[in-house]
Structures are given as structure tokens and as C-alpha cells.
Design goal:
- The chain is an all-alpha fold.
- Helices cover 60% and strands 1% of the residues.
- The chain contains 61 helices and 4 strands.
- It has a two-stranded antiparallel sheet with strand order 1-2.
- β3 and β4 form a beta hairpin.
- The longest helix is centred in the N-terminal third of the chain and has 39 residues.
- The chain is globular, with a radius of gyration of 36 Å.
Length: 1222
Amino acid sequence: MSTPASSSGMSSLKAQDVLPALRQMMKNLEPNIRASGSMDAAEDLMLHLEERDPSFHRYEFVKLIRSNIEESLGPLMDEEIEKYARSGQAYDTGQDTVVQTMVAHLVNSPAYSNLTQQLMVETKSAVDTLTREFQEEQEAQQALESRVEGPGFRRAPSFGYLSQSSDNDSCGSSLNNSDFMFPNQKEFEQIGEKMDQRQPVEFRLMNEFMCVVPSYWIRCPDKFLEEVIDSTLYLLHTHPTKALGGAEPLTPVHYLAMLDKKAGWFKKWMHGNYSRTVVLRMLKEKYRALIDNAVKKSLEFCESRKQPHSLLDEVTSALQRESISTDSQLQNIGEGKRTTYAGPELEYIYFIHSLCMLGRMLLYSKGRAFFPIKVKDKEVKVTDLLVSFVQLLSLPNQSTRPYTGLDAASLVADVLKMIAGCEAALVECLCKDAVVSVLLEPVKARLKPTKGKKAAGEATLLHIADILSCLASSQTGRRMLLYGEAGNKAGKPNRNISTAAHTIVEFATRALSSTLPSEESSPSYEVVGAYVFVCRQLYSTCEGLSVMHSYKLHACIAEAWRMASHEADIATTPLPAVEGDQTDSRRVLLWEESLIDNLLNFAATPKGLLLLQQTGHINECVDYMYARYAKKLQVSKHEKFGYGVMVTQVAATAPGMVALQSTGFIKALVNELWTQLECGRDDVRVIRPTPIPVDPIDRTAHKSFTAVLNLLSSFPAVYEALAEQKLQNAVSYTFRDMPNDMVGLIERLILVDTPAKMHALFNYEQSHTFGLRVLSVMCSCLDTFLLLETQYKVQESLLGCQAENVKEESNELIIDALSVERNHVLVRTYLIGGPSERKLPPRVLLEDGRDPYPFPLFSSFPIPKSYPTTMAGRSAMKQDSELSRYLSQTKTAEKNQAWLDGCRKAFCKVLTSKPDLAKANVLVDMLEKVVQGQIKVQEETIFPKVDYKVMARDRRDVHGSDKGLKSQSLSAVQQLGVQLTIRYGTHLNLVKNSKDTKEQLSHLLKQVRFFLRQQQRNIDCQLRLLQGEYVGHDWFTSTLFLMMMGKSERCWNFLLKFSTLLSSGYLWMPRLHASAHLPVPLTVSGIHPVYYCSAHYVELILQAEVPAVASAFRMSGYTPSQICQHWLRQCFWNYLDWLEICHYLCTCIVLGVDYQVYTCVAILRHLTHDILQHTQNQDLQVFLKEQPIPGFRVGEHLEFMQQLEERYRQTVQPDMRNLAKP
């Protein structure tokens, strides 16, 4: 892979450019380097310079390197992105993200190698010049001082630069490849002279050398590296002979451990692949005994934990008081410092050193390859070693001690957390039932205490919670906690309550509700909060919530928050000051905040949002979220993204929109948007005129554009925000009049149809274009369009604007940016059809100068004939198929389970082999017979059968009669929906556009409305959505009406039978609106099962089956549940062609309603390439809402959906069936 840019490398970077830039940076850093006090501190300063120096990116040297990196590697990155986008295939599934894979390819490219080589050469040349200048300056300074200051003056030691490298050096992955100050030989001698004579100088110096040399050996020949490592390991490998009857002699490792307890030298040696490869090779080939002995000593120490713990406690405390150089910095041993250590202290230090060494080795595959290790005729595996380490966590002497850093539990916890942060090491080391089981033993002991056995203390429980949190932060560790080592697939129900997740959530719920056994004191807020946080990491994912939801953790957290809130109110009440009150008040306030934060995170999933709503505290949670969102705070320490996804999830429901409005979130968003479009920022100094935006949505407003679309993506939320809200339509507007809600935004940016509104905009064209783009996306939801049109006459307003935008001399419509945008919206809202059934005009002009816009503009309906596509008429020839033959051979009495199974097979065969033969007439015949058979199956029939005629007669309701229905009228939304349906059916040649057809459909909808009204509750609720009948259009009934060629009586008879089946609750949206068949809490929530059940499992399966798409949604701030709810509410109208819509409905009814979930997953999988591309373009929401789904055929994806059925039906279908208990 090469480009002209990559071949030139860093041709523009020369030593004469680098030298002044590097000199400027070093001059600025000189005070900090001198103040660092030691070489390690200086090295640490340089390694973390970007994090600590706010001026890092202003240095000319940094700018110079960045510009050359962009010049050399920028084209390669673009090429890699395009290559990936074209392939449409995910990279290695072992990588967490696509970005990591792309970066890996880039780093391994020849261009990157050339870049680093030339950077090293040119920088080295500049460094050599600086070094020479520095040395000349130092020599001159020394000569001057020798003449002026006399012999009694003592200077601070001078430092020189080590800059030894050759072109033949290998360049590994070590980051320690910069030039740092290094003491010369004379300085080593001075340090040695100043040391206490009772201390071994050679070890002190050797340890310092071992810690410093990794910073330089990348500049040295490979032979030097091997000699240093070989000599050092040889010395450490040396083991003095034990005298007969004498004590165990001290080894070099003992001395090294006293100086460097946590093996900092080994950490640095293992950091880069350049040195790590040599270290592990030599350990394996020549010095394996060093590792064997470390394992042996570690196991011996772990086994000796049965000794009196007071002794171990004493040893740890003694070491705490000592100031031995833990980070390899040279320190003088003055008076009051001990220089002798007892035997147990030395062995404990040796254990610490061995623990840190072994923990570092386990991070790498070649290090894990040393196991199993034979110790005392027993093979020790990695699992055995880790189990021994984990057992140290439960030492009783940890019961009252806080984190110290040198106690065994803290050290083991640090090692385990380090391993948990490495994916490969996590899988092979910690994702073992044996390790996790031992880790949770103290927690299990608190749940079921053993008489006479002391339970683990606070520090132990906190250590365990930290380790579990690190595990739960990755998908691998999370699945380990949920399903155990066997790694049960998410599609299979997990009934094994012995898995770690069940233990953790049981402890958390019982601790919150204060129902733990009373033998021990109740755990502190800190402990309980730590375990609730681990649960939060699990229940914030769909699969985690599916495993844990039976514990009612949301209710426990809500109750604990209510109690904490009450305590906080008391704590903040002014009272006479008492010692310790401030601390207790602070603890209570932090506990209250922690609980509301954890409760809020239930909103991360569709089902979790329902549970949050049922606690009654969604408003408080959203208020807390808004406070943190406004400050741009992180969701948690393990969460990479902010609150964008959670805001989108909340905005998908009616109660969520109410909560967002009540907290001021909507007002703040609208004000920010208005400021970006119309006002600009006052705090930005204007040094040049603002450039005229060339994109329809300016870059500065793109984020607000996306946020608005996320909030208005769901019809229930839109209805809560806009229903019954009138426009102001003022005579005049001042420039200070700023909209504060969505209605004001629509009035000022979308329906700009009066001179007053136009003149009130500073940037009329840009702002109105923004509004029209928002309108276009909103109208992709048919119910939202019907609401906007019936309430605000959107089409009439746009047509009026088009009619006014004409040439005076010819009355021709003027083609400009706004007229083209309006034309697109008008055609989109008038025509209904899938990817091949309608043609939408573009939003931009063509490059053809003669005819830049060959699409006719219009100012009145109907639209020109060039926009609808020509549909083929119905074939008069009867085409036979296996399905039609199977249906024709069936008798009424034969419709049993065996017949249903045979029908499924015939349907699947036709769908996969000859889908064009599965036309509407055959499908309708099949549906009628399948439903007739399913009503006899108890598992399918979950709603009671209602006789419509008897119901109307018993209630003496004249409205139920045909005469009574004719006297009623449909809502404005339903009436406009009827017009759209007939227009679409006429275009498909399914029905005639006649008055009779309209009356037939209207009568059918009235029958359905009356039928469902008798099965609904009268709800006293603040939600506008639930105050009356279903507020949207019945797209399912309209679809059946077209499938049955406008035969309303046939359609009505089908619906009466179909209404008893499970699938009716998910395919027929009005079926469960305010339904008496649902529990009251579910009914008043206003959240439909399609969202909290179907869409929930779409997200669960998508994460497991198509993780790249799931990640793309998360990065974009959008959710799969949002778009799936949108598709399903309108039965894929405008997204699939008519035949595919029929196939979708038949698949869900014949094969099972869980195929609704599998179809959505299959569609998102089909769109993988486009989703990844538009995520990169930051317009995923717009793409998914506005664009149809081209090329998707239900039959072509049926095999994949059947595989999903095999893996997930045992989880999905029971949950969909159990509507009473979500």
C-alpha cells in the first residue's frame, strides 16, 4: 500500500527545521526538567508531557511532526477507510474496534516505517547538535567557575545526554525511545560515595541501572541488549549454597526485592516488544529456574497464610513505615531508618516482588506459555496460581484496614485488575469458574454465613468489587459473570443461579434492603455502592438485564434512594453544629447521588427504561442526567461515551419526552441551536469575516441537528411534544424572540411562510434549510407526518411558498436551494412506496450546466407524473406453487399442529426458492387458514375471544351497528391516513381510487376502533398519548385491506380471529393501546411492547451477532431500538417494496412473532456497509430514517433468521408471550 505522499516520507522535515523547534521546546522545558530532581522523574515528565503540559500542542517541534504525519500518513488512512467501507466486512473479531485494526494496518505499513526512520535520523542530528552545544557551554561554565569560585565550592552534579544509536537498531513497540538525561560515570561514583556504607552499593547501582537502561537500549546494538539482559538474569539466577544445618541463604533476588519491592525494573523490561522478546527467550532457555522459584515462593507464602495473622499484619505495617525506594529513585539512608530486616519481612518482600513479576508475565502469551510449572512434584497451572493469589484477598486481617498499597490484598487486587485490562490475558487467566468462584467466596459468606467463621471485612469486599468492575467493563468479562466459563450464548436462557452475576445482584439487593444475615454489621455505603455499580455495568446491557431483571434491583435502588433522599433532607437542615455531622452529611449526599446515578442507568436499554418508568422516578433521573449532560461529564469511569445514547433512549418514549421537557433539557437544546444558527458565539473574537456555509447543515450546527433528530425520532415522543400545541403566528417578531420548545422551532425554522418570519431571521436561507431538513426526517415517520399535516397544514404552507417563488415575467418557479428542498419534502410526503416504487428528487443541482435540475417543480397537488414509478399490472395467469397446492389440498378439519408445521415448510420453501410466486392472493389464503389453525393452539391464543355482535348487543351500543358506525367520523389523522392508503393501493393496482373504496376502508377502521375501545381502560394519566383512543393511524389494518384487494368484510373477519393471537399484540399497534389485557403499571407507562420487548431483543442479538453495527450505533448516539420501533409501527411502509411487506407480515404470523425481532436484525445486518459508512459521515440517523432499504428480500435472509430462531427463540419468545411480566 503506497501513495505518492507515502513514498516521499518526511522529505519536508530537515535537521535545519527540527533544530530551532527542538531548541525552543527544550528551553521551555528546562525549568521543569531541572526541578524534577531525578532521572526517573525527568523521564516520567517527558513520557507524560502531553497530559501535563497545556502548551504541548503549541510547541513548534510538535506542530512540525504533526504536519509531516498528516502529509505522509493522511492519504493512507483515507485509503484504509475507503477500503474497509467498500469491503463491507468486519475485521478480526478479536479486535475491540475497527479503529484499532485500521491503526494496526497503518503502523505495519512501509510508509510508517519510513516515517519513523527519517524522524529518528533527522531528530538525532538535531539532538547531536544540541548536545554538542550543551557540552561546550558546560565546559566553558566549568572553566569560569574554577577561576571565580575557588576550590571549596561544591556544585550540583551535571548531566549529559546519551545518544548512541545506529541504523541497524531494531525498533520494537516500546514507547521509551526518546533521549533522556543520563548520569555519567563520575556521577555514579559520587552517588556511591554518598551512600551509607552499611548498604550494598553494587545493588543499589545495579537496580538503578536496570530501571534506567530500557530508556536507551533501543539506541544500542542488539548485542548490547542481549548482554545486559543475560548478565542481569545470570546474577539473579545465582543461588548460594545452603550451609549444613544453617539458615536459608539470601539470594540476589532478596536484595533486589528490598530495593524494588514491586519489580519496577521487570515492568520496564517487559514494556516493549523489543526487550520483552529477549527477556522471555532467555528466561525460557537459560534461566527458567528464576520463574520456577518465584512461583514456588509465591505458593509457599500463600499456603503459609494460616500462620498467626498478627505476624503478617506486623510485617506489613513495618514495611509501611519504611521508606524503601519503591519506584527505584535514589534515596539517602539517614538516621532513624532501619537497615536490618527480620526473616518474615524478607520473605514477604520476596513474595511482593515475585507477585508483581508473575503478574506482568501473565499479560503476554509467551509469558503464559511457561505454565504449567512443576513445583514439588505437582504441576501448577495459571489457574492454580491465580486461585492461590485470590485466596489472599480474604485474609481476616483485612477486615478494618483501608487500602494501603503494600498489604497482600491490595497487591493481589492490583495484579488481577491489571490482567483484567488485557483482553487476551483476561480470557486465559480470569475467565475461569475456579478463579471467579474463589473470588466470590467472601461475598457468598456474607449471604450465607458459617457459624464461628469470621466474615470478610470492608476492605476485602471493596477489593473484590473493584476486580469485578474491571471484569464487567469488557464484553468478555461481562459474559463470564453472566454465563460462567462455559460461555452460554446469549440466546439460551440461563437458569443456573450459581453464576457470578446472580451472587453479585443478590448481595446488592439484600444489602440495599437491609436483609443480610444479622451476624455481621451491615456493609457501609461504600461497599454497597461498589457492588451496585458492578450490577449497573451488567444491567446497562440488554443481556445483563435479561439475566438480572427477576431480582427487582430497580425497585430496591429506588426505595434506597427515597430513604437516602429523606436522610439528605434532614442532614441539610440547619441544626446546631456537632462534631462529625459534616462528614456524615457528606456521606449521605454522596450516597444519594450514587443511587440516583445507578437508577438512571437503567435507561440504557429499552426494557430498562420501562423498569425505570415504573419506579416513578424517571423525572428525577432525567433531571440528574441533564445536570451532568450540561457539564459534559462522563457516564462512568468505564464508559467511553457520554449521555448521548441515553438521551436518545429516553426520548423514544412518551414519559421520557415529558421528563425531558420538565427538566428544561428541550429548552436548553432549542436555545443552543438558535444561537448557533442565528446569533453566533459572543465569546469568540472575530478577526476575519465568518465564511459563508456551503453545506446545507453547517458544521457548527451539525451536532444540534443530530440532537434534535434524536429527540423527534419517535412518534409517541413527538405527540407528547406537539399534540394540541398551536402556533403563535405573530404579526411581527423581534430579533430577541427566541423559541423555547419544539413548537417554536417548527414555527420559526420550518413553516417560514410569512414576511414577518422571513425578516426575523438573520440567516434566512441557512436557517430555513435547516428547518426543512428536520421536517424531511420527521415526515419519514408517517404518523408524525399525519400529525404535522392535520395540525399545522405543512404541505399547504410549502406549496404556498413555492407558488410565491416565481419569476415575474414568466410565472415559472425559481430554482434555488429552498425551492429544491421544499420540492423534495412535498414529493416525499405525497408519495408512498418502497425503493422501487417511488422516485424522490435530489436536494442538489446536477453538474449538467444546460439542465441542472431536470425535475419539475410544482405548487399544487397532484404531483407531476414523472415522480411515481410505473407499476406492472396484476397477472391474469394463475401461477401454481407448492404453497398454493398445499393450501388447496387442505380441509377445514385438518388445521392442527401437524398441518401448521407442514404449512410453515411449504411457505419457507416458496419464499426461498420462488418468492415471486408468493403473491398477495396466495398469502391471504394462507393467513386465513393459518390463523384458523393457530386459534386452536393454547400457546398462541393469549387474548380472550370477543364476539363483536354479541358485545354490541349486550352493551346496547348503537354505535356498534353498521348504521351507528356510519354516523361516526374518524379522527383527522385517520382520515388523512385513509387517503394515503388508497393512493398507495391505487399506485400498486390493488384498489381503485373511488369513493366506495374510501368508505370501505373508513368503515373498517371504525369497526376496529369500536372493537378495541371495549377492551381498553379509562386511564387517569398525564400523558396525552393515553387520553383517548389510539392517536396514530392503523397501518396494520390498512396493509391487510390492500392485501385483500379492498374487501373490508373479509379483512374484518380475519381481524376478529387474529385479535386473540399473541402476534396481534406486536404486529397490530392499536391492539394493546391502553389495553385491559395488560397490567395497570404497563398500561399507564405508555410504552408499547414493541419497544420494551421486540426492540430490546433486537439490541441484544445485534450486540452478539453483528457487533460492528452495534458499536456504530453507540458511537453515533443513536439506538437500534429507535429505528426498529419506527419501522415496525408503520409496517415498513416507505422502506420495503409491497411484496416484501407482505412477506414480512406472513413470516411473523406463520413462523412466529419472534421473527419480528429476527427480521430487524437481518435488515441491520444487510445494511452493515451503509451503516458503517454513514456513521463515519455522522449522518446515520438521517440515512436510516430517510432512505429505503434497497435489495432486502425476506426470502434471501430467511436462512439467517432461522439460525437466529435456533439460538434465541428459547429466550425471546417466552418473554414476548409473557406480556404481564416484562
